[in-house]
Structure to design on (89 residues):
């Protein structure tokens, strides 16, 4: 978070900067993280790793989609699927 604080110092020198409430929150968080050895920032532990909430998306489409779900597929693929469906009938 020091990047925001550095940015604020640069902008404040020119008469601008972060909103006072946001600045206060960033400073509080910085003090908490730097002051407590039990607090670990994940990006420092997993260098270069992305943070993802939830499971990864499935590359395979399910066979059944409920009536309230719209399946967005590319036109070429939709045409191929329609042709395959009509040839199976």
């Amino acid at each position: 978070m020091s990047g925001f604080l550095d940015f604020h110092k640069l902008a404040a020198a020119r008469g601008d900067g972060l909103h006072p409430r946001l600045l206060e929150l960033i400073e509080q968080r910085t003090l908490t993280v730097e002051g407590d050895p039990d607090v670990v920032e994940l990006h420092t532990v997993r260098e270069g790793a992305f943070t993802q909430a939830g499971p990864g998306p499935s590359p395979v489409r399910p066979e059944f989609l409920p009536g309230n779900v719209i399946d967005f597929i590319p036109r070429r693929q939709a045409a191929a699927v329609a042709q395959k469906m009509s040839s199976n009938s």
About this structure: The longest helix spans residues 20-35. Residues 2-44 form one domain. The mean pLDDT is 77.
